[in-house]
């Protein structure tokens, strides 16, 4: 399944990949560090091979990877905004939650105003409401949609 990355996150991963590929084990021994380096190289390659980079999903208000979600945690009333995307490849200007996380899975396909529930590590099931979902590019540019005149 494709993953969604910001262009900045993809660049950071490419730079990390280049640095890891340039690093060599001069001793010729295959220690744990070398094994971990090779595993990370493969992980990054797999991620980049399957990535959709910077292509915004449709601006339809549906929660999916590449969308910036604003949610209300209904048990506390707290509101949070985050990018639904790949963890570990954060953009830096916004928190990133994985679509595979309990919260990301619960919100997948939700529309504005829909309440979903998700399970936290303690086992509790918590309610969350999707307040807004906008494509990352629109969020980043600060674009505000034009009001549609009544028909």
From TrEMBL:
Residues 60-130 form the Transcription elongation factor GreA/GreB C-terminal domain. It comes from the Bacteria. Keywords: Elongation factor, Protein biosynthesis. The keyword Protein biosynthesis applies. Gene3D superfamilies: Transcription elongation factor, GreA/GreB, C-terminal domain. Pfam families: GreA_GreB. One of its GO terms (molecular function) is translation elongation factor activity. This is GreA/GreB family elongation factor. It comes from Actinomadura alba.
């Amino acid at each position: 399944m494709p993953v969604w990355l910001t262009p900045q996150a993809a660049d950071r991963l490419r730079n990390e990949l280049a640095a890891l590929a340039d690093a060599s084990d001069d001793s010729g021994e295959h220690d744990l560090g070398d094994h971990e380096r090779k595993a990370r190289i493969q992980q990054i390659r797999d991620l980049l091979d399957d990535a959709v980079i910077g292509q915004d999903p449709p601006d339809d208000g549906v929660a999916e990877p590449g969308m910036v979600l604003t949610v209300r945690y209904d048990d506390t009333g707290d509101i949070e905004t985050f990018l639904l995307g790949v963890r570990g490849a954060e953009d830096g200007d916004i928190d990133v939650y994985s679509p595979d996380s309990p919260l990301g899975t619960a919100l997948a396909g939700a529309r504005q105003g829909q309440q979903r529930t998700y399970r936290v590590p303690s086992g509790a099931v918590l309610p969350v409401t999707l307040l807004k979902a906008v494509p990352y590019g629109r969020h980043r540019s600060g674009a505000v949609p034009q009001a549609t005149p009544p028909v």
